[in-house]
Here is the input.
Amino acid sequence: MTSVRPDRLGAFVALSLAIALAPAGARDKKDKDENAAASAARDFDKNPFPSTYRPYPGHTTLITGATVFDGTGKRIDNGVVLLRDGKVAGVGGALADLDVPADAVRIDGRGKFVTPGVIDAHSHLGVYPSPAVDSHSDGNEATAPATPQVWAEHSVWPQDPGFARALANGGVTSLQILPGSANLVGGRSVTLKNVYARTPQGMKFPGAPYSMKMACGENPKRVYGGKGQLPSTRMGNMAANRAMWIKAKEYRAKREAGKLETRDIAMETLAGVLDGEILVQNHCYRADEMALVLDMAKEAGYKVAAFHHAVEAYKIGDLLKANDVCSAIWADWWGFKMESYDAVPENAGILYKAGACVVIHSDDKNGIQRLNQEAAKAQGSAARAGIAISDEEVVRWFTLNPAKAIGVEKLTGSLEPGKMGDMVLWNGNPLSSYSRPEKVWVDGALLFDAMDSKRRPVADFELGQVGEGDVK
Amino acid sequence: MIRRLGLSLAAALLAGTAAQAQDMAITNARLVIGDGTAPIDGGTVVVRAGKVVAAGAGVAVPPGVKVVDAGGKWVTPGLVLAITDLGLVDVGAVDASNDSGAAKSPFNAALDISAAINPAAQPIAVARANGVTRAFVAPLGTDAIFGGQGAVIDLGSDPRPITAARAFQYVEMGEAGARLAGGSRSSTYSVLRNALDEAREIALAPTGPRRDDVLLTRRDAAALVPVVTGRQTLLVHAERAADIRAILSLKTDFPALKLGIVGAAEGWLASADLAAAGVPVFADPLNDLPDQFETLGATQSNMGRMAAAGVRVAVGKLDGNSPTLAQYGGNLVALTRVPRAIGLTWDKAFAAISSGPAEALGLGDRIGSLRAGRAGDVVIWSGDPLEVTSGVVKVFIDGVEQPLQTHQSRLRDRYLTPQEGSLPKAYDW
Here is the structure.
């Protein structure tokens, strides 16, 4: 339960003033009713669908002799990693002084590699699940240009077979599910642990902040322009956004002044952004539009956590670094729409060289199975352009950096003592086409094991179907 | 006299292009022939008049040819991108630049996509810079079950992209075909059988009167004559095992059909039938999701299982927006290291993106490998070509060294340092 009520004192003061200034009798009752409404609009439960995720039991596990990329940019050859009580308990060299209980499961990691669990900052698993039939198309509430009131977790189908593929082939342990990009504001995201559950609440990453999805460019103007309404142009996109933020600021001011009479769940999301409690994940391909969004964010008083897709981020690496914004990008997707025409495979490399935050994302049920390879591709392209980036730095792009972009970097994303025991043992260097996860732990529980045919998840949908439990 | 001069000018022009194909030998290579055999260290490949004349260890360099020392790097045949819209599209979502389908055309099977290929399109340049030298271009955006006649192209930076026009007819079956044929699979088969019947009638009486209940235009029916007589391959997009079996059974009534299956996500469940029929398959090796009800059995082990059962497999009709074909081969190798999964050895995986597609289309004697007599399509790589970190160093097509500059590489050069210098970026070119 994280119902934060920073304005409770304000409400009390406002109520006292109203009582002091008002004549007795009928007006007193009216004021009481108004303040009850104002109070409901301010003192609402910010977490009405709380996470019920609980880590599964795990053994104390010690991996020895492996090459460890810890996610923070460190590489440890012949390293050891200890998971205990669901957490990373220790990481170090062969001689690290770790307190290893006698009953610990010991894994010989020689010739193998260990990374933190892979994190995808941009997924639509669950909201656009497999099979991709119309009845499952739950990612875009494309009925109004801004829908901050919708929450992705209310669309997530926890039986999407894609979660299993992301775990087994991609080593993905956490992922942010975003609404689609038809709308200027698509709604709230939800961050999940990649652990099947009967309910979306059962997958929710405990303690992860909400994000709000925004979208620049072609999609909103195409979808709504096609309906003959605002926005039909890029300037229309910006106008609609700015008008929205002005309203949100008014809402927030009213809320602070105790003058809100009814709750507005759309405004609650926008106010949450202005309060700094909800992060902004902004789909935006072109450099010019990203620069405009940064100024709009200053005007409105919020911060963009990451630009997603960001194929032209390399053109403004300096600006992105100065604004401390991550770029969540593909390695080499290119040319499928006009705003992706200037994509270059050196995008990540140039951003890295500029000192900006690089995140390799998928936006795709196939790509999420190979974020490690996508990062490696970007590394290779950078190297050929004269930008040499070490393996241990590149591993950050699909571990700690996406954790930062979605606001869970204090909890997961690196192998540091005290963090969640989210970890992958790879059968070779993860930055190779030839490597795959051998074992994947989430919160210390072994949830995929290539060596054990039963230690892989099979979603409800695949039961009794051809290929149930196949290697996939 | 004038006539003769004209002819000799034309001859000179042709000779001129051939002359660009400089005779050469690439030596000191980790040489991949591309036919499924193992790489050869210290290999040499000799290309003369645009064709491979010899490749292997201990191949002598003929006097007078240009020598390129590969310095121990990987040297392979160019990759073959099978079943793609390359050259038909500039930007997929920009309708006016997209010739992969023709919703309002009065024709379908008769459409010949070779006329629409733009060899200067950026997607061709980008694919070339990623090591692709030939492509099988298909009308993938079809709005009838018959998409029309696909072409084999080279990706050379020259105005003549066509290796083989009308190399195959492309037909959409399965879920998509059913929608196009009126709503059901049974309708698809009726439409297809009727079309082949009409073609057979035209074949028997090319100029004769037609019955009064024909559904196809004469032009469309005539375009299917090479299909029904087995002179042109019929590539059929189908994913479900049951659909694949149904398509194979067409041979009962149309015995001359030369079939290839495209997609085949459940091909492993019909592999015995495919092997017995000798029908090749073009598949996406990374397709592993039950994304449609016709792909419930999808698995990355599909190609490996089919190959083990004796099916001729090639990588083709890839999903996604990445231009890196080699990555698909690399993942087939990765599967060989996963317990219970079935992939392909490195040698066979490479063949699945070079000689495999060529042989599946009956062009194995012309392209796809470095065996003598094949086109001089050669790529030198910075490292193992199936590794995602590797890239292309040099590309030769028909023995002609190719430019590797693209819109992308020019942008990279301009923005390697994002900040402006003494002039705006627009002056930096």
Observations:
- Chain B has two domains: 1-78+369-429, 79-367.
- Residues 13 and 176 of chain B are 46 Å apart (CA to CA).
